[in-house]
Amino acid sequence: MNNSDDKLKFVLTTPLYYVNDVPHIGSAYTTMVADAVARFQRLQGKSVLLITGTDEHGQKIQRTAMENDVEPQVHCDRIVDAFKSLWQKLDIKYDRFSRTTAPNHQAIVDEFFERVWQQGDIYLDRQQGWYCVSCEEFKEERELLENHYCAVHTNKQTEWRDEENYFFRLSKYQQLLEELYASQPDFIEPASRRNEVLNFVQQGLKDFSISRVNLDWGFPIPIDKKHTIYVWFDALLGYVTALLEPDERPTLNNALSKWWPIDAHLIGKDILRFHAVYWPAMLASAGLPLPKKVFGHGFLTKDGLKMGKTLGNTIDPFALVDRYGADAVRYYFLAEIELGKDGDFNETRFIEVLNNDLANVLGNSLNRTLGMLKKYCQSKVPLLTSADYGLDHPLFNLGKDLGARATQAYENLQTSQACEAIFTLVRAVNKYIDDSAPWKLFKQEKQAEVESILFAALESIRLSAYLLSPVIPGISSKIYQQLGFDRDFNQGEVLLEEDFQTHSQWGKLSFDRTLDKASPVFLKLELPSED
Ligand code: MSP
């Protein structure tokens, strides 16, 4: 494959998470969304690269390792294990795990630095200002709280720095960036975030420092080893290193030959500036094409309050998935929160949503339909297709363009919209069965009508399970298997576009089979007891 096969490939990134601590629910949220979107692209038969990983250099990590009395690399390795184990528990199917301490990463950073240096975009100057180690970012005095506390990490005081640093000539790219945002209005999404960036850029861009002194934990600046490369300059390039094949020689050309440019960077709103301003300017300086999109999602709150260690109200993603299972956690965050908006976690609501949508609506529709199929059709699926239904049929009508609508939603990274559209059909199945009462028709010996109703219900449930598989792969697999398909959505089988064309449409698949007994696909959850 080369870069011209654009429509056949899809590259998506999560941020490379800091390893100062084990993963929190915020990192899990981004990674679950990215995983669902990547899964949908794979269903369509595309070659997909989902990149996640860890950002391991810088003062924050060095200090955390010192506090824990271990070498930084040992500390990083431990935390990386925790990230990988959470991704496994949550059924995240990433293709690359990019670590900024990986040996091949330094070669990429050095070569990139060299290009930008040759471009004349790096110079030595004096940096003075307030630095937040937790943000790894210089702050303007006006952004700070009293006594120079950071407004983001309200329990952390910023530190005064006055040192020689190398600077990147960001100001030179003001016009290029403004033209980029104007010519590609969907480069930054959602629109509210785009406006924030436009306002920031309109105020005039200042060059930023890309080296630190008195810091060992990082790569040295190739031309001046007293300096260490600033953690963000190093980390963003982790996306490029991730594109290398495992044993490929680490050169920019190799890294960029197959998968570049990246289709979308999915990040939280707090790191938008780095991705939507600094990153494209750095790439432009190195003469490289730009990524297609930066999507800044919102923040999670708990019971309406900002989550954080200071309030002691963080959610442990390990505990959540151990208690409720991967599909439950995925469904809540991906169906309930509109990507781009802040979203709240409340355990009572969590249980309500899951019990209602997954047990009462989805599970029950399958269960009752299979029960009736056994009773009225000896468990044999009636041999019908969409051609046997008119456009005014309530389920065919909702199902006929559901595949297209779900595709649109997933392509816009809007998993909640996809779920909403799909659940409109699942809810309609239950209503349709109630309204058409096949048990009465059976008594009246209207077998053809009974079969038509049951096929329409089964086909709607199948289609829904298929389109929900990026969000709840475990439950979708159970449904598919009960409908007689040998498919496990958690297996990484390579799919063809034709497979998508038949499975994503209502009434196109051949369904000639006798089914087994139904078994529950989702067991109702209970709130943990208080003691
Ligand atoms: N290391 C940088 C990213 C470098 S990318 C080249 C970083 N890491 S982080 O671990 O601090 O943050 C990772 C992500 O978690 C960010 O996208 C951030 O927005 C997200 N979240 C942190 N707290 C969050 C919530 N409470 N809710 C949702 N996401 C949150 O920044």
Can you characterise this structure?
It is elongated, with a radius of gyration of 26 Å. A hairpin with a 2-residue loop joins strand 10 and strand 11 (224-229). The model has no long low-confidence stretch (mean pLDDT 95). The chain has helices at 25-43, 59-67, 72-89, 103-118, 174-183, 191-202, 231-236, 238-241, 252-258, 272-285, 317-324, 326-336, 347-377, 394-399, 402-411, 415-436, 438-443, 447-468, 473-482, 497-503; strands at 9-18, 47-55, 96-99, 122-132, 137-139, 159-168, 188-189, 208-209, 211-212, 220-221, 224-229, 264-268, 294-297, 300-302, 305-306, 343-345. The strands form four sheets. A six-stranded parallel beta sheet has the order 3-2-1-12-13-7, with helices on both faces. It is of the alpha/beta class and 531 residues long. The N and C termini lie far apart (57 Å).
Quick structural summary:
With 531 residues, the protein is an alpha/beta fold. Helices cover 47% and strands 15% of the residues. It contains 20 helices and 16 strands.
Question: How are the SSEs ordered, and which strands pair?
Answer:
Blueprint: E1 9-18, H1 25-43, E2 47-55, H2 59-67, H3 72-89, E3 96-99, H4 103-118, E4 122-132, E5 137-139, E6 159-168, H5 174-183, E7 188-189, H6 191-202, E8 208-209, E9 211-212, E10 220-221, E11 224-229, H7 231-236, H8 238-241, H9 252-258, E12 264-268, H10 272-285, E13 294-297, E14 300-302, E15 305-306, H11 317-324, H12 326-336, E16 343-345, H13 347-377, H14 394-399, H15 402-411, H16 415-436, H17 438-443, H18 447-468, H19 473-482, H20 497-503
Parallel strand pairs: 1-2, 1-12, 2-3, 7-13, 12-13, 14-16
Antiparallel strand pairs: 4-5, 4-6, 6-8, 9-11, 10-11, 14-15
Helix pairs in contact: 2-3, 5-6, 11-12, 12-13, 13-16, 13-18, 15-16, 16-18, 18-19
The chain binds 5'-O-[(L-methionyl)-sulphamoyl]adenosine.
